[in-house]
Design goal:
By secondary structure, this protein is mainly alpha-helical. Helices cover about 80% and strands about 0% of the residues.
C-alpha cells in the first residue's frame, strides 16, 4: 500500500492534507484568474491584435491538454504525491519566468506550463479527496470553494493594481512564495494507494477509458462547461470595457463578483449537494446557471449583476462533474479517465478562444458573447443523454 497510513496518524494526515489542498486551490485559483484581467495590459504592452490576445489564452489551454493527458497516466502509474510535487515545481518555474522576463514569446511559453501545471494540480486535489476523506462530495466543494476565493480575490486584487506589466510580475512572485509553502506541505502529507493490501488491480489503458459508453458524453459535457465559464473569465473584462463601456476596473469587478458568487455557492451548497449526489445536483444547478446567464447577457449593461449571480448556479458544477467522472470508472483508472476527459475537452477551450477574438472583430462583441450562454444550455444535452438514454449501458462504481 502506497504510504500506508496507520490509524493513529489518520487525523493528523487529514489535517495536513486539508491545509495543503486549501493552500493549493486558493493560489491556483488566483493564478488561473489573471489572464482575463491582464489581457488588456498584454495587448497594450506588446501592441497585440485581438487574435494575438486570443493566442495567449489558447496556448494556456493547449498546456492543459498536454498536462492532463500525460498527468492522468502518471497519477495512475506513480505515487500521486511525487506527481504533484513535480507538477508544482514546473508551475513555480513558470512564475519565475514571468517575473524575470518581458517577452511575448516567453509569455506564451510560460502560459503552457503555468496553466497546464495549475490545472493538473487542481485535478489532482479532486482525485485524492475521495482517497483521504470520508465525505468526498462535501470536501471537494470545500476545496473548490477556496479555489473560488483565489479566483475572486485574484480578479479583485488585480483589478485594483493592474496598471502595467510590472504588476503582473509582482503578483506572480507573490504566488511563487505561496508555492514554496505548498511544497513543504506536499512533502509532509501521506497519500495512500487506492488498492487494498494484497489486491492486484488490472492494468488499464487509455483505450479502456475511451471504450466506456459514458466517455463521449462526458467529453461533451466538459466541453460545454468550459466554454461559458472560462469564456467569461477570459473575455468578460474585455467585453464589458470595450463593448459595454465600463472602465476596466469595473469590468474586472463583475468577473470577480461572478467568482465571489461561485465561491459562496460552493460553501453554502456543500451539504446540499453531498445529500443530492452529483447527478441531481448537476441538473438543478446547470438549469439555474443557464437561466441567469442568458438573462444577464440579454440585458447587456443592466444585466451585469444578474450575469455575476450566475456564479451561484455554476458553483458546484465543476467539483460534482469531476466526481461524476470518477463514478463511471474503477478506482485504478480514474486518473487516466479524469485526465483524458478533461484534457481532450480543452479542445473546446482552444477552439473557442482561438476563434472568439477573430469572430468578435468581424461581428462585434454584442453578438459573439452569445456563444457563452448557448454553450451553458448545450451542457444539458449530453447530460440528459448520459443520464437517461445510456443509464443501463453505463456502469457506475462506488
Amino acid at each position: 500500500m502506497e504510504d500506508k497510513i496507520t490509524d493513529k496518524s489518520v487525523r493528523r494526515n487529514q489535517i495536513i492534507a486539508a491545509v495543503l489542498c486549501n493552500v493549493l486551490m486558493i493560489v491556483l485559483g488566483m493564478s488561473d484568474s489573471l489572464r482575463g484581467v491582464f489581457a488588456p495590459i498584454f495587448k497594450d504592452t506588446f501592441e497585440l491584435s485581438a487574435a494575438k490576445v486570443s493566442m495567449i489564452i489558447s496556448v494556456s489551454y493547449a498546456g492543459n491538454l498536454i498536462f492532463l493527458f500525460v498527468g492522468g497516466k502518471l497519477l495512475d502509474t506513480f505515487k500521486k504525491k511525487y506527481v504533484m510535487l513535480g507538477t508544482l515545481l514546473l508551475w513555480m518555474s513558470a512564475l519565475l519566468l514571468y517575473f524575470f522576463t518581458k517577452s511575448y514569446k516567453l509569455l506564451l511559453c510560460g502560459m503552457i506550463f503555468s496553466m497546464g501545471a495549475s490545472t493538473l494540480l487542481s485535478t489532482s486535489v479532486n482525485l485524492i479527496t475521495p482517497i483521504l476523506f470520508m465525505s468526498p462530495g462535501f470536501m471537494m466543494n470545500i476545496f473548490n470553494f477556496t479555489q473560488g476565493v483565489g479566483i475572486s480575490g485574484g480578479q479583485n486584487v488585480a483589478a485594483k493594481f493592474a496598471d502595467g506589466f510590472r504588476s503582473w510580475q509582482v503578483i506572480n512572485i507573490i504566488m511563487f512564495a505561496v508555492g514554496v509553502i505548498a511544497l513543504f506541505l506536499i512533502l509532509a502529507v501521506k497519500i495512500p494507494d487506492v488498492k487494498k493490501d494484497g489486491e492486484t488491480a488490472k492494468p488499464t489503458t487509455y483505450m479502456s477509458v475511451v471504450k466506456n459508453p459514458a466517455f463521449i458524453w462526458l467529453i461533451l459535457m466538459c466541453g460545454f462547461y468550459y466554454i461559458p465559464e472560462h469564456g467569461l473569465q477570459n473575455w468578460l473584462p474585455t467585453y464589458a470595457s470595450e463593448y459595454l463601456g465600463f472602465p476596466l476596473s469595473k469590468a474586472s469587478f463583475f468577473t470577480g463578483l461572478f467568482y465571489a458568487f461561485m465561491t459562496i455557492g460552493r460553501l453554502v451548497f456543500a451539504v446540499l449537494v453531498n445529500k443530492l449526489g452529483p447527478k441531481k445536483s448537476l441538473f438543478g444547478f446547470s438549469v439555474l446557471y443557464s437561466v441567469l446567464y442568458i438573462t444577464g447577457v440579454a440585458m447587456k449593461k443592466n444585466g451585469m449583476y444578474i450575469l455575476a449571480a450566475a456564479g451561484l448556479g455554476n458553483s458546484i458544477m465543476w467539483p460534482m462533474f469531476v466526481y461524476l467522472i470518477q463514478l463511471y470508472y474503477p478506482p485504478e483508472s480514474r486518473g487516466k479517465a479524469v485526465g483524458l476527459i478533461t484534457g481532450l475537452s480543452t479542445f473546446f477551450d482552444i477552439g473557442f478562444n482561438a476563434l472568439f477574438g477573430v469572430i468578435s472583430e468581424q461581428i462585434g462583441y454584442g453578438l459573439s458573447i452569445w456563444i457563452l450562454p448557448v454553450a451553458s444550455v448545450l451542457f444539458l444535452v449530453p447530460f440528459g443523454i448520459l443520464t437517461f438514454g445510456f443509464k443501463k449501458k453505463c456502469k457506475m462504481y462506488s
